[in-house]
Amino acid sequence: MNITTLWPTRLWLGEVDAADLAQLSALADPARDVDLTDAGLGVLADLEQAAAAVDPDAQLTWSHRLTTWRAGHYLGMARSAASVFAMTVVASTGNDANQDSGAISLHDPRVAASNVALPGLPWGRPFKISAAAGAAVAAPGWLAYSIAPLRDPHTMTVWLAEGSVLSR
């Protein structure tokens, strides 16, 4: 049986190395979000370049921020207003027991997407990224996402990036 993908959804999955995570962690402030847009860090440009593959025909302008999620934080189904969004887990502490705590799930919001279930293929179910430090994902802004509730005493520092279209 041949399966033809008519509407591919481009995702970028990657990992940020420990030295870059340490540099980002040093900038984090648990009391408030930190705007990194004009920080001039090489790792920001690296992510922008990798994430641009999600929408290769677009010229994007990026915004970056660090935020801290504590036990109890969660996010139901949401989407980004930007053309491309990216999330990177900078630090994740206190999560030894629960693998789903803080997991990032991507969901296809298209009508009937959940009705397409082919054994062994990922269609029809969310794509899950664990809350491990260094985990990174970039996706089109129309793709829905959710964050599983963080269990006590789990805390995460997350780098959020959004690329808005300047031109195509």
Short description:
This protein has 168 residues and is mainly beta.
Report the portion of residues in β strands. Answer: 35-45%
In spatial order, strands of the major sheet run: 1-8-5-10-3-2
Give the overall pLDDT as a whole number: 87
Given helix and strand content, the structural type is mainly beta
CATH architecture: Sandwich
Order of helices and strands: EHEHEEEEEEEE
Helix content: 10-25%
Q: Which term fits the overall shape?
A: globular
**What is the CATH class designation?**
Mainly Beta
Rounded to the nearest angstrom, the radius of gyration is 16 Å
Overall tally of structural domains: 1
Structure summary, number of beta strands: 10
* Sheet having the most strands: 6 strands, antiparallel
- CATH homologous superfamily heading: q2cbj1_9rhob like domain
List the uncertain runs: none
Using the coordinates shown, work out and report the CATH topology: Jelly Rolls
> Span between N and C termini?
37 Å
